[in-house]
Design goal:
mainly alpha, 0% strand
Amino acid sequence: MTSTTTTEEPSARITTPERPPIASPGVRQLTATEFNTAMVHLYRGEVGRANTWRIRLDGTTNWAVLTTGATLSFGFSSEKNTHVMILINSLLIFYFMYIEARRYMFYDLWRARVRLMETEFFAEMLTPERSDELENWRQILASELLHPRFSVTLWQSLGRRLRRNYIWIFGVLLASWCVKIVIHPHTPASLSELFERMRIGPIPPVIVLLIGVVFNLFLIVLVLTTGERASDETTSRQEMRQRMGTMHSD
């Protein structure tokens, strides 16, 4: 009886070669040419952002002007059209002003960066011999890029847009409402008739007049409590350093 022995070859082991650790690229100092090129591209990008938001500001103002014109045309086109449309339009204009104030906050953010690069980078290239370096402006700009913050509050933005554009629109609406009540379609015969014209459905005339007074007082307070900076559009170098440094001091 013959015994047969079978020899099995051991199965080949599949081994994955170890990958060498990926070395992160070392951080090297930028050359003067590389730094200038990067700053120029950053400046162009920030100018583009500022221009985009500046155009959006004009958009909401155009909406307000067109809406006001259409409302006044409708209100004075017939004696049957009441003054309610003017009051509703005033609320709509305030909402447009709120939208524009929010857009202004973003516009001011990009504009501040542009102005900082103008007063520090480009001005330094034109006058490299100056020695009034109060603080490293690169750190200020880097802090602004890493931790962007609005330099104006919503309340301040509302006040600025009101002073520059919307105060005239609200003034036209107030004057139009008074004209509609007093002389359109004819002058009231008595003071009681004048007050009766202010009525809005079940709302008494006194309540309507009180709401109008409170609304206009609110606009006056908004103008008085949000004083304009002396050089808001053309901030000097020292003012810009103080403004940006204060924002990121904490």
